[in-house]
Amino acid sequence: MQHADFTINGQIKSSNEYNQCSILWRNLPALFKTRWRSEAERLSMSGYKLFINTNVNNLIAGDEIKIAPWH
């Protein structure tokens, strides 16, 4: 069983990933943001939240950032 990392370092790491994703979102082309929003509607969330959740989790897991939801 894995335990959540509640240490200061774990919070700092999550914060760094969030900041990276937030900067990426601000710099995405409008077409990409529109697509994230349309994908997120099916999940009853905003495109921003879907983008952030997807990519913060990817960064924490060591996976690649997903810029476009259709790839």
Question: Can you describe what's shown?
Answer:
This protein has 71 residues and is mostly helical. The protein is built from three helices and no strands. The protein has helices spanning 8-27, 30-41, 47-61. α1 crosses α3 and α2 packs across α3 (47-61). Mean pLDDT is 84; it is low at 1-8.
Spell out the key features of this protein.
mainly alpha
Helix-strand layout with pairing:
Layout: H1 8-27, H2 30-41, H3 47-61
User: How would you state the average pLDDT, rounded?
Assistant: 84
Distance between the termini: 31 Å
In terms of DSSP E residues, the strand content is under 5%
Give the radius of gyration: 13 Å
Shape: globular
Low-pLDDT runs of 5+ residues are 1-8
**How many helical stretches?**
3
The amount of helix comes to: 55-70%
- The ordered string of helix (H) and strand (E) elements is HHH
Structural class: mainly alpha
Report the major sheet.
Answer: none
Number of strands: 0
